[in-house]
């Protein structure tokens, strides 16, 4: 498992040459104050993070931080205006912010909970949608196995629109997403079909759409199962 994790890390680092690096060419890592981190990078647009915040996951990170005296692997960050957004490690930064409120000042200082270690991608997501896309794609690659079905549906659907807007054609986006997300064409097609129904549900009834997102935001199932759930919701609204 450690060897596979190392290979995955090396692949992620080689996938993009857009890291901020030090004088020796190594990816630069530094600790930054939590008030310089956007509170929830999953809610930004252009999007940079594929996953919703999950308090259960955050609680697990908090327990781990306290058990390991604040030791934490670096999050991946990119500039967002004068702040940083977090394509990977969004739950870590919130876990730290919650601990700073919950723990006494001595614990915060000793465990260095008021700062987060980050590796930085070049670019500024608030002003450069290409840089934001690189961050989003890397977020997908690093979280692919952890994502819920709806998170994958939304990410792949956004990827489809991203490339179609640039090339003004329906064909070709699959090859780009395959390369950027590191997934198979069949996976893309099945999730795109579900995304089309999700967009249709949003148009038909915004309240039902948001209720659906909330109900299934952490559900893991085959894309076709999510497609059928969406189909049933639309049928309830009289859409065939």
Low-pLDDT runs: 1-5
Question: Count of helical segments?
Answer: 10
> Which whole number gives the mean pLDDT?
91
Distance between the termini: 47 Å
CATH fold type of the largest domain: Conserved hypothetical protein from pyrococcus furiosus pfu- 392566-001, ParB domain
Compute the number of strand runs.
Answer: 4
Determine the strand fraction and express it as a percent band. 5-15%
Q: Which outline best applies?
A: globular
H/E order of the elements? Answer: HEHEEHHEHHHHHH
CATH-derived architecture of the largest domain: Alpha-Beta Complex
Task: Report on this structure.
- This protein has two domains: 2-138, Conserved hypothetical protein from pyrococcus furiosus pfu- 392566-001, ParB domain (Alpha-Beta Complex); 149-236, no CATH class.
- Residues 1-5 have low confidence and may be disordered.
- It is of the alpha+beta class and 240 residues long.
- The longest helix has 20 residues, at 185-204.
- Strands 1-4-2-3 form a four-stranded mixed β-sheet.
- Helix 6 packs across helix 8 (185-204) and helix 8 crosses helix 9 (206-216).
- A hairpin with a 2-residue loop joins strand 2 and strand 3 (83-88).
- It has ten helices and four strands.
């Amino acid at each position: 498992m450690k060897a596979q994790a190392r290979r995955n890390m090396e692949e992620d680092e080689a996938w993009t040459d857009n890291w901020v690096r030090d004088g020796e060419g190594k990816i630069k890592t530094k600790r930054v104050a939590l008030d310089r981190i956007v509170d929830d990078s999953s809610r930004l647009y252009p999007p940079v993070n594929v996953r919703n915040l999950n308090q259960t996951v955050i609680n697990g990170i908090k327990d781990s931080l306290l058990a390991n005296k604040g030791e934490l692997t670096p999050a991946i960050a990119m500039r967002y205006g004068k702040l940083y957004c977090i394509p990977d490690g969004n739950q870590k930064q919130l876990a730290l912010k919650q601990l700073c409120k919950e723990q006494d000042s001595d614990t915060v200082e000793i465990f260095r909970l008021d700062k987060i270690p980050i590796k930085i991608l070049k670019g500024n997501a608030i002003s450069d949608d290409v840089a934001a896309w690189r961050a989003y794609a890397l977020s997908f690659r690093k979280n692919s196995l952890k994502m819920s079905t709806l998170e994958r549906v939304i990410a792949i659907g956004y990827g489809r629109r991203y490339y179609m807007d640039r090339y003004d054609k329906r064909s070709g986006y699959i090859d780009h997403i395959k390369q950027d997300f590191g997934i198979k064409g069949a996976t893309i097609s099945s999730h795109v079909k579900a995304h089309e129904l999700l967009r249709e549900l949003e148009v038909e009834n915004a309240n039902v759409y948001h209720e659906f997102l909330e109900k299934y935001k952490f559900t893991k199932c085959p894309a076709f199962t999510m497609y059928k759930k969406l189909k049933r919701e639309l049928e309830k609204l009289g859409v065939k």
